[in-house]
């Protein structure tokens, strides 16, 4: 074992260990076990092969950007087998320790609430201090609870590999605690699964990285390439205090575009069309919460106008819901490349396959087919539809204070996830265009996103659109997913190597395709660190069911 010194900012002498059962956190007395709801997971040992491949990648095999520039459809990267002996990572003994570590991590209720912002002043953050009872590498505490580790490589000329995860979990609704099969922060291991909030999202990611690092250190491994680990603590609330500070810190320390590649939580592996595909998200949709406010004169309910403020707000919501954004995709959308791969390696039949073929052509015919393709994909519904449209969900509404008084201010907040081929500005413009006729019909002044669209003299009220919660986020730049990309090759080759050496491996290939994140991760705070951002967890979807994973 090659012990790694703690930084001077950490108390020396506490140099070890990931949390174990001993580090359990006392739960409030009202949490008792009860059957039903479960969130469970058993670690996939193969995660360790994936990480160790990345760590073991030798300097002599420095990544180069060589290779053909014209690619055949869905060209695959070669398998990258780690040098050195990593079989210890797969041993029963290692498995037991890793189970213990993940179980211990789940016991610490690192809940992140939307209204948490003051790291020093909010008592609820203190639990993250309990979670920090592991310290092996040089660590910097960023904004108190953010963790930035450096495992220094022997070749400083190589750009570091950055691995990220988040420490926080979605809060457990206290009234549901008795419905859980095991208490949400029990970290109970039943011989197959580890139960509890965070056992999947994202303590699996965090503990798998830490376990692999820990075991490699114990085996005496020394990396050639520096490895940077970054763990935010409010991802579930947008990473506004955790990853934001970590991103700034890392950019200051290492510089802009300083990382070879960033791998954070994200999508996994799926069996579809008769083939297993690994689908790291190379892009992420944008985001915008919009507040709709209708201000109207007050008055007594006994002499109401035809539409109160609430009625007008309802009309506005109805108009927006009846005018959804049209499906649209360019060839930059990761789903376009993914579909090409599905058609090439899987068994896609019918119209989509034919349209795909036409869409890969140039000129008007190709563009027309691409348009049709977006419509066909949207027709599949669910995530597919969300991948080619800007989605809209009315999530908050308020208005009125008294049953005999006309509401003077009625408000709603609409959540949007912006198409990767669109933008915040395009969405704002579309909302204005959709609502303008309504404001004219009902004689409302109209203000939108800081602009005065119309200001009527005898207006019956004012409709205002404004960004809510400081939420605007453009769609992420799409990371490369072709074999000209050294980073993609490293990620692909590592995943393929892990797949090919898994327990009970057969001769089936793992096909790497780019995916699109329809939600957001902490990576949105790390855009400046690298152009190669992948959101990926080595986990088979077929072995996961809803919130339960094994
Ligand atoms: Zn997560």
Automatic annotation (TrEMBL):
Protein name: Uncharacterized protein
Organism: Naganishia adeliensis
